[in-house]
Amino acid sequence: MPVVCARELGFTWSPLWSSLRCHRLSSRAGTRAATEQSVQLGSLPRLCVRPGFWVGHGLQGKPCRRKRSRTAALRLVQAAASEPPLRPAPSSEQGVVDAAPSSTSVEGVTRIRRHYETFWWRCRLTNETYRINYRVEETLNTRAPLFHVLLIHGFGANLLHFRKNQPVLAQEGHRVFALDLLGFGASDKPCLSSAKRRPDGMPSGSRDGYSLELWRDLCIDFIHEMDRCYADTPHRWVICGNSIGGLVALMTGVALQDQMVIEPAGRNTDAAPAPTEATESRRDRLAGLVLLNCAGGLTGVRYSELSPLGAALWWLFTAIFFRSPIVYWLFERIRRPASLRNTLRQIYRNPEAINEDLIEILREPAHDEGARDVFASVLRGDAGPTPRELLKQLSPKKRVLVLWGRDDPWTPFDRGIYPGIAFSEWVSEPTQMRLVCIENCGHCPHDDSPERVNTEVCAFLKELWHLERCDDATEPSNDVTSPHNNNDNAPRDTH
Length: 495
Prior knowledge:
The protein is an alpha/beta fold.
């Protein structure tokens, strides 16, 4: 377990799952006995704190630089007591949802809450259950939410990256979900690396370890579980993602576009009648997509795009670099506050957006156990499908909003292999996509220019809702019990 140092108190805190012990390191003759303070930390064993001592596991023989007062010791106890007790994962059923308290910072009590609700996800790849952190916001009023909106963050980020967008969308009458993908934020960070190889010696594909397919499956299962949790008011989904989160959103949308949801007609009224078979309608589960500077792949290299020699050289490079201590050294440097700030200055154009809150949001999860292994696994992973392939698979009925920061150095708007300007050329029907280039904005437009993004997304959602209501007025009856209208494959959504 990582050891967190509280330098200002002269203590080291090691959050062990088993015993927590205190070790007296100064046994000078004549030293007066220190007063021992004990507290009970939730479900954890007793913790003893003594002034002038180091608190931790396996730290015998490391002297404390200077003695601290009893008050300082009690401060450490209070900070440690605020750490939420860990909850055991359920042993069988997937989809158990519960609430989780806020967490503490690696150097004291955090100013920003990390933990929200918990979705226990059964991963198909490992057949293990993992903790997925998510947050839901909605406006409490007499009307049912218009859409369910899912926000998917990019690489190295978490659900708090949408802190400037989620409340605004909720105020518009939508139920808005944001989740931490497996391996990021406050979600679990298991080691999913595998030694599987294809016959030609190359990696076995994107299903091995952390991948876009893994996160797509997570989002699909999460959507199904939220539909079960809110079964009294079924809704269609709008999926929004930034960077690789945009690619995950696109993959999830393609997978959900043929799935149907049964919803009561007239649910947007203040006093909607109780749904009956005559008032129910069948709709596609997916209403639309929002892509924010969508990435071209999980990594920048695809073996299918390389020559045999290039593929062999790239495999050798990843085997040497990404499976050695070098990648861990790189991770240690990247997660430093100064390095994070320098990186953000490259991809942000609004200096005011790069504040201490953003640094803390990105830095804290990088200190979780398993974070550096996730980093290494993603770097040596498969790039996954291309945006061109996915957009060509998307139904021409599905509306897509693409927002792109023009000054993005990582996924440029008008150059590169998968530039933003080319997205409108890859859809089946040009009218189904709206492409908006945001000036003076970088790789994360939702955080770099939140006012513009919120305006565009809210207008897009209103347009989708208007089209859906127009369809209700023009379509014939969709009574699913009628013997003349029981073709599940017939298109129901004409927008």
